[in-house]
Amino acid sequence: MLHYQRTEYGKLKKVLLCRPNYLKIHTPINVIQEKHSVNNIDTELACKEHDQFINALEEEGVEVVLGHNHERYPYEVNTRDLGVTTPKGIIFGRFYSPFRWGEHRLIEQTFQENDIYIYDKHTEGTFEGGDFMYIDENTVAIGIGIRTSLVGVRQLENTLSDLGIEVITVDFAEEYLHLDMIMNVIGEKTAVICEEALPTHMIDKLKEKDFTLIKVSKDDVFLHKCNLLSIGDNTIISHNQAEDINEQLQQLGFRIIQLDLKEVLKSGGGPRCMSFPLLRE
């Protein structure tokens, strides 16, 4: 079966998650983990929160595939970073941090057991899925911060070159981890952004396409207020740290599923980071 995706807001049918069974901050790999490294993470509570996430998805009719996990890879919960699903199929990237090298092998095993086909794998440069954002069916933004290199972007451009998709590169400060921490397209013409963290050309492109922009501050970025998950039909899976954003989205007609997440967010990722869409209508 071909697994594909061409927007951020189409109906989500199937998704890859990984339970945080071994989630602990051993060596911090982002500024959020550094903040919580002393008190660390309550793994049991993180698993309970993640179970809420699974239940919310399944109650909305989304098929959840759980990836194999291993104590050697404590940060697997953020499955988004594995790569991206495209109209051609699933593309695996290459992790920037050595602490995540090897996660792809576990997910390859998961995919083999579930008859999920991988279209391509990156062998040069670095590319993580948190830096890939569909603007619409014909436009994607790819972030270049610390996790994705220009070489990785060029490989994606080559893969997508015959689809007529415009690729916009977005440079941003390393502290923001991934593009989806500072920009998130969560509706056909709606995005949550941190304006001061994005280059002018990206904001201008969204305005040119008549997007409604919900703005968050730099401090809000590290509370994951951009990092929400659209599951289609104007339905968003969010969390209680983004309550003010949830209210603004509701005013625009979105239905919000607000989860009580706190412990699992200490790993550095919100609902979008914790999900790897396999199939969207």
Automatic annotation (TrEMBL):
Supply one GO molecular-function term.
arginine deiminase activity
User: Which keywords does this chain's UniProt record carry?
Assistant: Hydrolase
Q: Name one Pfam family in it.
A: DDAH_eukar
An example GO biological process term is: L-arginine deiminase pathway
Query: Does this entry carry the keyword Hydrolase?
Result: yes
Q: Which domain of life is it from?
A: Bacteria
UniProt entry tagged with the keyword Hydrolase: yes
- Protein name as catalogued: N-dimethylarginine dimethylaminohydrolase
Species lineage, top-down?
Answer: Bacteria, Bacillati, Bacillota, Bacilli, Bacillales
